[in-house]
Amino acid sequence: MRIEVLKHHAGIGTPRDDLSSKLKVLVTRDLPGDAISRLSERCQVDLPTPDEEIGHGRMIEHLADKQGLLCLLTDRIDAEVLDNAPLLKVISVCAVGYNNVAVEEATRRGIIVTNTPGVLRETTADLTWALLLAAARRIPEGDRMVRSGGFVGWSPSLLLGRDVHGKTLGIIGMGDIGAAVARRAAGFGMRILYHNRNPSPLAAEVGAEMASLDHLLSNADFVSLHVPLSQSTRHLIGKRELDMMRPTAILINVSRGEVVDEAALVDALRNGRIAGAGLDVYENEPKLAPGLVELDNVVLAPHVGSASVETREKMAQMAVRNLMDGLEGKKPPHLVNPQAYRG
Ligand code: GLV
After folding, report:
1. 287 and 224 in one domain?
2. Which candidate in 195, 256, 312, 334 is catalytic?
3. 63-103: pLDDT as tens digits
4. Residue 286: predicted pLDDT
5. Range 61-67, long-range pairs (CB < 8 A, 24+ positions)
6. Domain containing 128 — which CATH number?
7. How many domains, the chain?
8. Does any domain span residue 30?
9. Is the CB of 229 under 6 A from ligand 1?
10. Candidates 121, 226, 303, 334; catalytic one
11. Are residues 111 and 139 in the same domain?
């Protein structure tokens, strides 16, 4: 474990510096850009070396004396971790999804939880479209064919895909990211259906019609998932829902793997119940459901929805800002559990 200690600047001895200098934070993985080195100017940062993995057990050891935690979506912050972090005040998740944190448990202990929404909206919408277009036009299959020497000349029936323009896009979860995906559909002249628990204030701007889940599934040519993972969205798409989709339809998931019953999806893809899928997330990440990799009609990305240089740097800055504000008693801009904030 590499320990970076606060650098005291001679002559800068304000009371706030004194307060910050005593704060200890655990950062579970180094992040792109200079956000973490800037954090280390204000706090004592405990950061693993690049080859070190902070698993559940080590997390517990290292949180014993920390007031702050900056973690990733892969770090499981459960009641056991919280029970062993007596000084912890702020958990800053460097992701929009925070299903890896036991938020209610944190709230009960007065620990605030923050995330990084907004800043990754457009980048994640771009990736959604990359998967949608790649799946519809069978780009990875073509890439594999060309690389392996299988492209022996133009043919009228080679790798026929599906048109995207003029089709119906079904968005499940019309929040920030869902609306950014829908906005891009205007350029493709698509009709947009959406399904949400409540009518979305963003729907009118993107010209989307609200629909029941079943209506959306049976009418959309592309179904794209943008819901957070919760008890009510776990396996939102299972056998029943896949059976309702058109045999020509394509499913896109950039939300969380557990929203889809991956074994049922493998069956549906294998049996041609749906035409294809584009996935960025998996039910038991990084493991894949048996049979998934053997299928040609699925495009697989390694959870890179927000993975652009610009956005990952902005997320790191935002996560540090959330953490510092929380530690200094200010209300962080992206507070997940305002009930825990005592300003
Ligand atoms: C990525 O999956 C995120 O939640 O930020």
Report:
1. yes
2. 256
3. 999 999 999 999 999 999 999 999 999 999 999 999 999 99
4. 96
5. 62/1, 62/26, 63/26, 63/88, 65/24, 66/24, 66/25, 66/26, 67/23, 67/24, 67/25, 67/327
6. 3.40.50.720
7. 2
8. yes
9. no
10. 303
11. no
